[in-house]
Specification:
By secondary structure, the protein is of the alpha/beta class. Helices cover 42% and strands 18% of the residues. It has a 5-stranded mixed beta sheet with strand order 3-2-1-4-5, covered by helices on one side.
């Protein structure tokens, strides 16, 4: 699972979205999915309309008006957008953009990193 922290009015998030959609489309048949985590800046209806208009097929969670969800992820260092956290099948964090700066972020390397992780997992 790739957690994709984003919001509609975020320019870098919008630039990143095509590769996120591509990942989901390319690997969903292998059990991979993206879960979008949208901040509290827009209503659920606005995010739903955006997702439909932009053909986003993966699930999106919209934070509460109080920002409770992102407060929880702040403990993992999620403050900026977009941010990605990759979870393994066991739910453990494989890679977290906020702590893996030395080797590049998932935003920068996600296509290569995910391709490698999926193919390694299939050969084990």
């Amino acid at each position: 699972v790739l957690l994709d922290f984003w919001f509609i009015r975020c320019g870098p998030c919008m630039s990143d979205m095509p590769s996120t959609k591509l990942l989901h489309q390319a690997y969903e048949k292998l059990g991979f999915t993206v879960i979008g985590v949208h901040n509290k800046s827009e209503s659920l209806d606005t995010v739903r309309e955006f997702a439909e208009k932009n053909d986003i097929k993966y699930p999106i969670v919209v934070d509460t008006p109080e920002g409770v969800l992102l407060q929880q992820y702040a403990e993992l260092g999620v403050f900026g957008f977009p941010t990605h956290i990759l979870l393994g099948p066991d739910g453990k964090i494989i890679r977290n953009d906020t702590v893996n700066w030395d080797t590049g972020t998932l935003r920068e390397l996600k296509l290569e990193f995910l391709h490698e992780a999926i193919h390694k997992g299939r050969s084990d």
